[in-house]
């Protein structure tokens, strides 16, 4: 079947999909960037696809900074994840071009590079170790003296002791990405059910759909659980296949750079200050994003005075001039953390149920590769080789998680 006839089929059946007894080929639970890209790619492959979410395009993407930082985000013990992160980073330019062409949206993609800097001797030693790890992994990063760092970014504090220049780590605006993915899904014929999914339906030991909050049943050949941090407590999922995903709170600030200060920063700047990670992401529209705390506080999304203070304090040590900028927004969101900080992708041991969750701090970076992986497994039943290390079965059976969905 041609892409044109696929699109015609979608257009002709768009309204009939909302019938209560209508079955989808694919039903995606969760309308964040991961759920949306999975739905979009599935629809482009000819699958009748629906998304269940009360606010498609919301979720963690509304708080994320959008760093596409496969190299500077490298952590010890995450070399396997690095491969997936790099694969997704390589796809980003073509992915952005395709999504822009499909929607007409500007995604705020900037190939501006990243500068990771050290403010004291301990931070410098840590950064040197990171540089050595990057080199062992074959990654491109350049060690700079403090003076060289300040030459690149004149707003940096005089006390900067050294840094790593990574030209390959870019950025995107996650809010624009989410909005574009909603539009792309709509144009590909994806149906949106804008309410909560209350529970999974299992018929004869197979996932068969969901029941919506208003009691409406939806049926599907395959169900993709892509509900971010909520994935770990979705009702109806058998304990043995419930993903071990937990919420990790992050607080983020947004400031505005007045024209008289522009350009304030030319690239993303990040550092470890007294053991805490802080980053400053300058947008082309004059916005400056500062983040991010990492707090194991369950489902709390309160913006706290302490969180805001710590971010501004650390950012001020890095870039003293930041205190002159207007503070325009404070937000807190929940990253979906997994036991090994890597996503769970692909089929579970419950036939018909697939996972696309647990992306933790790499959800925006992993959006392109996740969409490709999920579409391939939904169409062919085969998990691509690059995704095999991230199969849900790597954790075995999980402990029961109490169910408490928002109302």
Description:
It is a single chain. By secondary structure, this protein is an alpha/beta fold. The protein has two domains: 3-61 and 176-244 and 339-395, FAD/NAD(P)-binding domain, CATH 3.50.50; 114-167 and 247-337, D-Amino Acid Oxidase, subunit A, domain 2 (D-Amino Acid Oxidase, Chain A, domain 2, 2-Layer Sandwich), CATH 3.30.9.10. Helices cover 28% and strands 25% of the residues. It contains eight helices and 18 strands. The chain has helices at residues 3-13, 33-44, 79-103, 121-136, 146-152, 174-187, 305-318, 367-380; strands at residues 23-29, 49-52, 67-68, 114-118, 142-145, 162-166, 170-171, 191-193, 197-202, 207-212, 217-225, 246-256, 268-273, 276-282, 287-291, 327-337, 344-347, 353-357. The strands form three sheets. Strands 1, 2, 8, 9, 10, 11, 17 and 18 form an eight-stranded mixed β-sheet that branches. It has an eight-stranded mixed β-sheet with strand order 5-6-4-13-14-15-12-16, sandwiched between helices. Strand 17 (344-347) and strand 18 (353-357) form a beta hairpin. Helix 2 runs parallel beside helix 6 (174-187). It is globular, with a radius of gyration of 21 Å. The two termini are 41 Å apart.
